[in-house]
Amino acid sequence: MGHDLVIVANRLPVDRVTDARGKAAWRRSPGGLVSAIEPVMRAHDGVWIGWPGGTGQRLKPLKIDGLDLVPLSMTADEIEEHYEGFSNGTLWPLYHDVVAKPEFHREWWDTYVKVNRRFAESAAELAAPNATVWVHDYQLQLVPQMLRELRPDLRIGFYLHIPFPPAELFQQLPWRRQILEGLLGADLIGFQLPGAAQNFIRLVRQRVGHKTHRDLVYLPDGRTVRAAAFPISIDAAGFEELANSPAVRDRADAIREALGNPKKIFLGIDRLDYTKGIYARLRAFGELISDGALTVDDAVFVQVAVPSRERVEHYRNLRDDIERLVGRLNGDLGRIGRPAISYLHTSYPREEMAALYRAADVMVVTPYRDGMNLVAKEYVACRTDEDGALVLSEFAGAADELRQAWLVNPYDMNGMKAALLEAYGAEPKELTRRMRAMRRQIAQHDVKAWADSFMTELTDVEHSHSKTVRP
Ligand code: GDG
C-alpha cells in the first residue's frame, strides 16, 4: 500500500492558525508552489509531508480539499537550529552569493541532519513500492540520500528553488561533501538555471571525484544522476483572469486615487530579505527626486515589504535600516499628502497583489541574487493591456527569460537611476513592444509546464538499478 507520489517540502501547503474564538484551524497558504504541485498530487494519488508551522504538538495526517497532508512537528530547538540556523543562517546567505556572511555552527548542522532524517523516514513509510518522491529545497538536501538508503526501489527527484553557488563559494561549507552526496541520492536534480546545474556538476567532479559528462553524474554503483535546469514559473492564466476581474480593476483605480493620482507609480513587492535589494532601490529613487530628475508630483514609490524570518537578527536589523531610510527620504523629500515612498510592512491577499500590479506603471525588482523571482513574472501576467515597465536585476533567474525588461546591476547606483528614469519616460509603443514579448514568454512557460517537464524527466530518467553504459 502507500502512495504513488510523495511530495516532501519544509512547509505544508496549509498553516495552523488560531481563529477568533481561540480554536485551532487550518488555512490554505497562498503561493505558487501549492498551485503548481496540486494538479500533480491529484493525478498521482499524492501525499505531501511538511512542517505546519508552530511547535510541539503532534498532529494527525489530514485531508484538505481532497489533498492528503502529513504534518511533521518540530521542537523549538529544531526550528532554531534547523530552520532559522542552518537553513537561513548558513545555507541561504551562502547560496545567495554571500550577500550576508554565512555562519557555521556544528550544533546547527547536527540538527539539520536530524530533521532531514525525520523527513526521509516519514517519506519512506508513506511511499508505495516503486513510488516517486519529489523533495523540495535547501532545507532538505540530505533527504534524497537518506531515503535511497531506506528505500532503494523509489524514484527520487529533488528541486532547488534558490540559486546553487559557484564552487569558489560552496567550498566554504564545512559539510560540503555531505551536502553533495545527500543530493546525489536523487535520480534527477532540478535547478532554476543551467549555470546552477553546471556549478553542481563541477563540484561533484572536483569534490566527490565522480565521473561526469554534460548533465550526468556516473556513480560507482552504476547509478546515473541527472542535474538540469527547470526554470519555475507562475499560473499565468490564473493571474491574468484575476487582473481582468472587475473587482481588481476597480481596486487598482482606487489605489491610484488614494495615492493622489501621481503621473506614475513605481512598485516593489518583496519578502523583507537582504537578498532582495530593497534598500538600494529606494535610495536610487530618492536620489532621482533630490537631484530634481523627478518630483513627488511625478511619481510615488510604493514598497510592500512582506514580514519574513522576523526572529533572525539579521532580518530585524535590515528592517530597521530600511525603515530609517524611508523615514529620512519622506522627511527630506515629501510634502503634506505627498510622501516620496509609500511603505507597507504587511502581506496582502492575492487580489490586492493583482490590483497593485495593475496600478503600477514601473515594477522594480532588484535582488542582488534570486533563484527566479516570481513577482517579476506575476507583474507581467497582470499587464493585460500590454503596458507597464519592468526594471529587473540581471541577478534574478527571471532575467534569463524576461530579456525585454530594463535589466540592471543592483550594485550600480547610477545605472539603476538611469534605468528607472528611462522606464519612467518610455514611449507607449516601446512599452507595448517589450511587454508583449514578455507576456508571450510567460504564457508559454507557465507553472504547469514546469511541473510537467520535471515529472516527465523524472519518469524518463534511467531507473536507479538499471545498469548504465559509461561513455
Ligand atoms: C523563493 C526563491 C523563487 C509575496 N507577498 C505576498 C505574496 N507573495 C508571493 C508572491 C510570489 C511569492 O510570494 C514570492 O516569490 P519570489 O519568487 O518573489 O521570492 P521568494 O519568496 O524568495 O521565493 C525565488 C521562488 O522560491 C520559487 O521557486 O522564484 O527565487 O527565493 O508568488 O506573489 N502573496 C500574497 N500576499 C503577499 O503579501 N498572497
From TrEMBL:
Upper taxonomic lineage: Bacteria, Bacillati, Actinomycetota, Actinomycetes, Propionibacteriales
Family: Belongs to the glycosyltransferase 20 family.
SUPFAM superfamilies documented for this protein: UDP-Glycosyltransferase/glycogen phosphorylase
Signal peptide: none
Protein's UniProt name: Trehalose-6-phosphate synthase
Domain of life: Bacteria
A Pfam family hit: Glyco_transf_20
InterPro entries: Glyco_trans_20
Organism name: Nocardioides ginsengisoli
